[in-house]
Amino acid sequence: MHVVRKFPDAEIVSNLRTGDLMDDSIRSLYRDHFDKLTRYILANNGSQQDAEDIFQETIVSFIELVKKDKFRGESSIGTFLYSMNRHAWLNELKRKGRALLREEKFEMNMDRGEADKLQQMAYGEEKQEIARLVASLGDTCKKILLLFYYEERTMKEILDATDYDNEQVVRNKKYKCLKQLEQMLNEKPELKQTLKNLLHG
């Protein structure tokens, strides 16, 4: 078993700048700070996976700052990493909040005319290609998207027609399905514009 000794802050900064003992220095950062920073994420609506992702992002950013001489050592590494970790997580929460708000706003603003436009997809020349893309997302995504956009079912009705635990889970799944479809449409800009026109007028 490889035992990593505890490095003083000044030595970690020096090692990260020069590349000396880089692996041991990074292991030391993980050993000394991962648990504390993870607890912050978990205490603020994050998952274990969120905590691991944000910590990894924080360490990479810290190394870059050190290499660019932007870490002056005015605070301890622990305090600095905690601040970076907190800032990164708050930004992630804002991003997630904006994404959910956009989806909810879209659903709230969707009137009869917009629903009619969605149904026109059945008659457009691009319909078959879009239908193939939707089908390639898998049976679950296809079912949820068709129920919501074509049959105009409510989240409650879709929940009853699926095996999910609650409406929020269905809403999250629908959002993920839409993001997958959007990524696929990025490779087909002509279809993407058609779908955007149908959704937003």
Explain briefly what this protein structure is.
This protein has 201 residues and is mainly alpha-helical.
Structure description:
Helix content is 76%, strand content 0%. It folds into two domains: 9-96, Rna Polymerase Sigma Factor, Chain: A (Orthogonal Bundle); 110-200, no CATH class. The longest helix is centred in the middle third of the chain and has 32 residues, at 77-108. The chain has ten helices and no strands. It has 201 residues and is mainly α. It starts with 8 loop residues before the first helix and ends with a helix. α2 (22-43) crosses α3.
Give the N-terminus to C-terminus distance in angstroms: 62 Å
Q: What is the chain-wise order of helices and strands?
A: HHHHHHHHHH
Number of DSSP-assigned strands: 0
Question: What portion of residues belong to β-strands?
Answer: under 5%
Number of DSSP helices?
Answer: 10
Rg (CA only)? 24 Å
Keywords:
201 residues, Rna Polymerase Sigma Factor, Chain: A, 2 domains, 10 helices
Topology, please?
Elements: H1 9-18, H2 22-43, H3 48-67, H4 77-108, H5 112-119, H6 127-136, H7 139-150, H8 155-161, H9 167-185, H10 189-200
